[in-house]
Write the structure tokens for this entry.
Amino acid sequence: MSPSRGATPSKLEETWADRVRANRVQAERLRETQPPDFYAPVTSLFVADPRRAGEPALDALIGLADPDATWLDIGAGAGRYALPLALAVKDVVAVEPSGSMRRALRTGLDEHGIHNVRIVAGAWPDALDELGPLPAVDTSLIAHVAYDIEPIGAFLDAMEAATRDRCVALLTNRSPASVADPFWPLVHGEERVPLPALPELVELLEARGRTVEVETLERSPRTFDSVPALTAFLRRQLFIAEGGEKDVHFRAILPDHITRRDDGGWTLSERPTGSLGLVRWSVPRD
């Protein structure tokens, strides 16, 4: 499904948009639930200790952090990266459209006594207008954001417009939602339409004339505290209603596909394929 090398930026953006659109149309056709805030029931999954250690992706980001720099975290969620970055840099601007995520982010700031994060409510790139004079920050970050962004060209344009020095993207070569892909044929009788991810972003950036550096990082399997938590996560990725006919079938087959880890957590028996990449590129200035 990937376009050939040498394609123009406009062609790559069109191909990206087509895949995002096809993924969304499939979800809408099969969807049995329509929550007002998709992340509200699972916000806790995105909360993490800002002083945690031993996470390769976070360690790599902190390695890029200058104590005198300002960062923008686009799609900051509950602050998984915004909070630890705030401990390492001068200021962080956290852009987040989900109200439940913003509430979790504010809670995290209060709990950990972090006061150098400015929260901007809104989706990117519309939130660019809320940042003030541009460029507004030294470094901009997207962490597991952009997979489902249809107008990817405008998204990247705004990201670079906000940034003085460098943009950073943390993405997998298959979208995080793909962990539920093995269940789609079993539950819905069809394969999931894949979203664009790391390879497509790198190809697009290079077509746009950017010099891109990619660092491959260790990708740990996603774990859950309990089987109900894992079940709820997968159910949401399958867009099925709890207690419905498809959900009954899903829960019947689930035990054959999950396993308990040595630390007591639960994960999928088959480790998700793919890698995690940290992408960096400098912002061109006239």
Observations:
- Strands lie at 70-74, 91-96, 117-121, 137-143, 163-172, 212-217, 258-260, 266-268, 276-282.
- The domain at 9-222+272-282 is CATH 3.40.50.150 (Rossmann fold).
- DSSP finds nine helices and nine strands in the chain.
- The radius of gyration is 19 Å.
